[in-house]
Amino acid sequence: MDAVPKPLTLIFRLALASTAAVLSAGCAGPGNVRSSAASVPVAPVRAVVSLPAASDAALTADYTALNRLTWGASSSSMAQFMKQGRAAYIQAQLHPGPDSLPPEAQAQIDRLSGIRRPLTDLIQDLEQQRKDADALRDDDAKKAAQKAYQQALNDLQREAATASLLRAVYSPNQVQEEMTWFWFNHFSVHQGKHNVRAMLGDYEARAIRPHVLGRFRDLLGAIVMHPAMLRYLDNDQNADGHINENFARELMELHTLGVDGGYSQTDVQQLAHILTGLGVNQGNNKPGMGKNLAGYYVRQGLAEFNPQRHDFGAKTLLGQPIKGKGLDEVQEALDRLASHPATARFICTKLARFWLADAPPPELVQQMVGAYQSSQGQIADVLAVLFNAPVFAHAPAQQFKDPVRYVVSAVRLAYDQKVVLNVGPMIYWLNRMGEPLYGRLTPDGYPLQSSAWSSPGQMATRFEIAKAIGSGSAGLFKTEGPQPVERPAFPQLANPLYHQGMARTLSPATLQALDQANSPQEWNTFLLASPEMMVR
User: What is the pLDDT of residue 417?
Assistant: First the structure.
């Protein structure tokens, strides 16, 4: 694979030189299981999906395209791709039907009762738990109760991560899953702010996921009205006479126009005034107010527009006036931001960078901008231009995978036909590599550029992960309580997907390293740690 960056090849060779030490040391981490022929005497996981007959060149081209369109190619997704054909597959991915996860994966999500509860009920119960804990007079009892409250928040964060990772690995609607991650990262919130941990599952499921392939304006509106964003960027503190500009600034700089979008500090200030009164109400009580304001009051779940806290004065945003009319001012401002040419360019450039290259071709970005403007921001239409562009089909794999993409692609390749029972090791790996789900402190989201993730330290950690997956189940099937009678040992990656598609994308150096493997487990490790597995 000529496109693999030379530094990665050198690092890979250095990693291979120390293979014996790494393999003998084991891979430490919560839930990880050291495996060997003696300790886990069961057969490897075998691929049960056979690929349709096709020429080697066609299979290789299909594999390359599929690897770019998904979190990572797998046997089942390859069979689906070949059955439908590229054009029909892209169309189905851009306009997906109801999700159809494997029953074992869906059952795990269904057991996550916390994130399935109505958010209002969940938050009100947690708020009462917090108040009860704070009211205790005995110090030890108070500490224990406060710890229990924090653990409840942690459990909800873990549930949200579990559902997200299971869908990423096993959903056939891969573009929808990647775009869910993309938009969550674009509209990033941090789990450590207030009680945002309890809102993460709802934020993804109800504000983001339904709109990831729809109109950008609809997505933007759902984000602005969700309590997770309102709390994270302090708009619940933004009121007439006590202006907080945090949300207004990030809404323009990070979410719509971009840092070079042509707005001024005055525009930020005016938008902050437009957003006054939009906040969060975690109780059941409607604030008292006069009849002249009552008609402006709006409550949507926990999000509340309180006209008593709103500046009803006239404003000017991006050179155009906005009259004082309550929450309708916010909707008018969002219309203006979503339809602005700078927003179209900012969003399309970021999409092309995520899906194709750190420096996407300007002419392709311009075509995407045209689709955005002509379709009034239909994201699926924009992606159709990108996915059907010749450069998308034929560009060499050169994007270094961020940690989420590497972990998910490795697990998809290894356990496509066996649903993991514990995503704990995946969460641990992401934490180690510096990209924990919901863990970005700043609102700009994790960087998309390859340079952010291609350090030698990253490669060393990825080699350990490759060893953990390639030589054993890495704790992915270790559950609480009694363990399954049959526990997978190591996956069989030398399957039809490898022989008929992936192998032809590997460099001579990688093929030579694979030929030198002393066992199937070592072969798996070399493949998962290869430079080609690090890029797409």
Answer: 85
Q: Tell me, what's the pLDDT at 28?
A: 35
**Phi and psi dihedrals of 225, rounded to 5?**
-100, 10
Q: According to the model, what pLDDT value does residue 472 have? A: 85
Strands 320-322 and 303-305: unpaired
Rg of the chain over all Cα atoms, to the nearest angstrom: 25
Question: Are residues 247 and 233 in contact, defined by beta-carbon separation less than 8 angstroms?
Answer: yes
Phi-psi region of 85 (alpha: psi -120 to 50; beta: other; left: phi over 0): left
Q: Which value, to the nearest 10 degrees, does the dihedral of the CA atoms of residues 94, 99, 104, 110 take? A: 130
CB atoms within 10 A of CB 76: 18
| Interior/surface letters 416-442, b for 16+ CB within 10 angstroms, e for the rest | bbbbbbbbbbbbbbbebbbbbbbbbee
Euclidean distance between CA atoms 497 and 170, whole angstroms = 17
How far apart CA 206 and CA 299 sit, in angstroms, is: 16
Which contacts qualify for 348-352: CB closer than 8 Å, 24 or more apart?
Answer: 348/372, 348/382, 350/186, 350/448, 351/182, 351/382, 351/383, 351/386, 352/386
What are the residues whose beta carbons fall under 8 Å from the beta carbon of 244, sequence distance 6 or more?
A: 234, 235, 237, 238, 272
Tell me if the pTM is above 0.85: yes
Q: List % helix, strand, coil for the chain (3-state, nearest 5).
A: 60, 5, 40
In 3D, which of 160, 250, 166, 248 has the Cα closest to residue 208? 160
- Amino acid 50: pLDDT: 54
Q: Can you give the residue ranges of every domain in the chain? A: 6-101+398-534, 341-392
Buried b or exposed e, range 462-497, using 16+ CB within 10 angstroms: bbbbbbbbbbbbbbbbbeeeeeeeebbbbbbbbbbb
Which phi and psi (to 5°) does residue 110 adopt?
-65, -25
In DSSP terms, 279 is beta-bridged to 304
The count of other CB atoms within 10 Å of the CB of residue 342 is 17
Give me the average pLDDT of each 10-residue run along the chain (536 residues): 43 44 36 30 43 64 91 94 94 93 95 92 96 95 96 97 98 98 98 96 97 98 98 97 97 97 97 98 91 94 97 96 96 98 98 95 98 98 97 86 97 94 97 97 94 90 95 85 65 89 91 93 95 92
User: Chain-centre distance of CA 385, in angstroms?
Assistant: 22
